[in-house]
Amino acid sequence: MHMPQMKAVGLHRYLPVNDPESLIDVTLEKPIPQGRDLLVQVKAVSVNPVDVKVRAPKQKTESSPRVLGWDAAGIVEAVGPDCTLFRPGDEVYYAGSITRPGCNSEFHIVDERIVGTKPRTLDFAQAAALPLTAITAWEGLFERLGISQRKADNEGKSVLIVGAAGGVGSIATQLAADAGLTVIGTASRPETSEWARQHGAAYTISHYEPFTAQLKQHGLTSVDYIFCLNNTDQHWEQMAEAIAPQGKICSIVETAAPVNLKLLKNKSAAFVWELMFTRPMYETEDMIEQHLLLNRVAEKIDAGELRTTLKERLAPINAATLRQVHQMVESGRTIGKIVVEHFD
């Protein structure tokens, strides 16, 4: 029996991005959804730092092609027998799970509990820019840092977002400003400062200079919350100094060496991690929270309270285009999000 085929981009070996074998065009069997899985026809994908980290050179080979990609928007083609949230024809957006094949394929399997209804007012590329970063920003701000979503609760409160113009920063600044916080973003170039201010930062400071001296220039002696989206090791001491007594710091960037937690002790300050893959990876009981928060983000987009963080779109979805985007993301100088749309 002949199984239906689909195009995909994958890898057999983990190589530098300028090697044409680092990402290759492949043909795979079209998967069949089971349980609570959706089969999605992928229309657009985005590339995140996680793609670059997974693809990075290492001594390992894959016998069957490994497909990357953790940001997609598309149309539900088929549903597993236990699905209750979506049906064929629904337009969706999601990030997926790091423990399953990625979305750089014409059709993709994803658990419906981590999928949101695509914002009506966005096209597929604009929607594909959002899921991974929106989940990260939402969980980081409202769940890990415990910030209230009610404006009245946040009057006079401040958050410092380290790396405010990147993918997560571009949506985190908007969500924090929308929740009524004073947002201070770090940026190091005129264009990144401008982008951060356009997306909700009241002020920007440089992440290459001491934080507290710069905060004082804006009338702040400390900040209530810090959301670190860039190089935890480099900024650790600055963050420990800038955080208010009883404040909270959340980071999404793993440390290369142990950090000195003792710096937070006198302030009774908290440090917490955010990884948006935790819920799907461990299939936690509250996994459906990602479905719910993506729907809330879509409602806020459609109401004009948030906007897409898409900065650049490329086509088509193939190995050559994705290698190009990996190179751009690897440079560490991207602003907002880069999306690739359309299979040939």
Automatic annotation (TrEMBL):
A Pfam family of this chain: ADH_N
Coiled coil: none
GO molecular function, one term: oxidoreductase activity
Similarity annotation: Belongs to the zinc-containing alcohol dehydrogenase family. Quinone oxidoreductase subfamily.
Name the record gives this protein: Zinc-type alcohol dehydrogenase-like protein
SMART domains per UniProt: PKS_ER
Keyword NADP: yes
Keywords: Metal-binding, NADP, Oxidoreductase, Zinc
SUPFAM superfamilies in the cross-refs: GroES-like (SSF50129), NAD(P)-binding Rossmann-fold domains (SSF51735)
Gene3D superfamilies, alphabetized: Medium-chain alcohol dehydrogenases, catalytic domain, NAD(P)-binding Rossmann-like Domain
Enoyl reductase (ER) domain segment(s): 18-340
Organism: Paenibacillus beijingensis
